[in-house]
Amino acid sequence: MTHINSDYSKLTESYLFYETKLRAERFEAAHPERRLLRLGIGDVTLPLAPVVIEALHKAVDEQARQESFHGYMPELGMGFMKQAAAANYARRGVTVDPEEVFVCYGIGDDLGAIGGLFARENRVAVVEPAYPAYADTNIMSGRTIVPIPGTEENGFLPLPSPELEAELVYLCSPNNPTGAAYSKAQLQRWVDWANEQQAVIIFDAAYEAFITDPDVPHSIYELPGARECAIEMFSLSKSAGFTGTRLGYTVVPKALIREGRSLQQMWVRNRSTCTNGVSYLLQRAGEAALTEEGLRQSRANLGVYQKNAELLTAALDRCGVRYFGGQNAPYLWLRCPEGMDSWAFFDDLMERAGVVGTPGVGFGACGEGWFRFSCFSTPAVTAEAAERLIAYFA
Ligand code: PLP
Fold first, then answer.
1. What confidence tens digit (pLDDT) does each residue in 251-280 have?
2. Ligand 1 centroid to residue 248 C-alpha, Å
3. Does 171 contact ligand 1 (Cβ within 6 A)?
4. pLDDT (0 to 100) of residue 263
5. 239 lines ligand 1 (CB under 6 A)
C-alpha cells in the first residue's frame, strides 16, 4: 500500500477566503436589495501596462513564424529576462549577477519549491501575521514552525530575540496583511542575526513597488551581509498587475553557502530537474514590464491603489480607528472595535455597512482582533466604502 505524506494532517483547514466568500454570498442571497462593497481579496483590478500588451502580441506573432519560433525555454530563465531583473536591482544600486536570478511563474510556485534546499530538521521562524504559504509549505515537509508574533506593541515588526532558535526565517516587507515595513536598521538586525546563526532568510518582496518611505529597503540586498544569508523572491503580480498573467523571479546569491555548499548551485540543480522553464511569451511580458517605460506605466496603476489607500486611511483617521499600513503597502490593518473578534467584526461590518474585508485571524493567531482591507478595489467602490465606514464608526 502507498504511504501518504502524514504531515498534511498537521495543516489547519485553510478556509479564510472560501469562508468570507460564502458568508458574503449568503448575505447577498438573503438581502438582494443590498450591495456589498468588497475590500477583501488582495487581487489587482487594473489592466496590464500597454508596453506589456505590446510585448505579448509581438511574442505571440514570433511563435507563429518558423524563423522566430521558440520551443522549450532554459529552465533557469531566458538571458534577456535575467538581465532585466539584474537591471531592476541596479536601479537601486544593488548588484545582482544574472546567474543568481531564477525566473519563475511567481512567488507562490517558488515558495512551494524552495524548501527542497533544506533538511527536514530545520526549525522555521515565521513572522506573523503572515501569508499562510510560509508555514503551510514547511508543515507539508514535516518542519516545525516557530511563530514570531507581530503585535501592536512591536508595530507588527518583530525583531530577532537572543532566545530565538531557528535555522530558517520568512520575512515579508512590506507585509501582507499588516502593511508594516521594516526600516533599513530593523532589517539589518535580521541580517546580522542570520549571519551569526548561519541561518537563512527567505525574503518576500512582493509589495516592494508600494514603498514610499526612503528609509524602507526595496530589496534585502541593500543591506550589508544579506548576500551571505538571504534568498529574495520578487513578483510582478502586484507591482505590474500580473496576478493572472504570472511572472516573478527568485534570487539566490552565489555568496550564500551553508555546510560548504553553494545554495545557488543547488537551486540550479533543483530547477533544472523540477521545471521546464517559463513561457517565452510571459518572459517577454516581464522584460517589458521592467523597462523604464513599463515601470512608469505600472506606476500609474499603483498610484490609483495608493489613492484608494489614502481614502481609506482618511476615513479611519476621522473615526479614530487604530490601524497600520496603507503607506508603503496596499493593505490596511485595523483593530476590530472593542469586544469583537475578527469574525464577529466581519459579520457586523457586512451586515451594518455592507463592506467586506478579511478577518485578521486567518493570517495567524496573533491576527485575532484585527482586520485587513485591501486597496486594490476600484476608486468608486473604495470611495463609497470609505463613506460607509465613516457612518459605521460614527
Ligand atoms: N507573497 C505574498 C506576501 C503575497 O501576498 C502573495 C499574493 O498575494 C504572494 C506571495 C504570491 O505571489 P505570486 O502571485 O507571485 O505567486
1. 999 999 999 999 999 999 999 999 999 999
2. 10
3. no
4. 98
5. no
Closest atom of ligand 1 relative to the 207 alpha carbon: 3
- Of the residues 131, 236, 243, 247, which should be mutated to test ligand 1's pocket, given the most ligand atoms within 8 Å of the CB? 131
C-alpha cell at 235: 513578483
- Number of Cβ within a 10 Å radius of residue 311: 19
DSSP annotation string for 37-81: EE-------SPPPHHHHHHHHHHHHHHTSGGG---SPPTT--HHH
**What is the CB-side half-sphere exposure of residue 365 using CA atoms within 13 A?**
6
In whole angstroms, give the CA distance from residue 79 to residue 76: 9
* Ligand 1 pocket check for 204: Cβ under 6 Å: yes
In tens, the pLDDT along 362-392 reads 999 999 999 999 999 999 999 999 999 999 9
The burial class, CB within 10 Å (0-12 / 13-18 / 19+), for 214 is exposed
Lowest mean pLDDT among 4-13, 311-320, 344-353: 4-13
Q: What domains lie within the chain, and their CATH numbers?
A: 6-48+299-393 (3.90.1150.10), 50-293 (3.40.640.10)
Q: Is 168 exposed, middle or buried (0-12, 13-18, 19+ CB in 10 A)?
A: buried
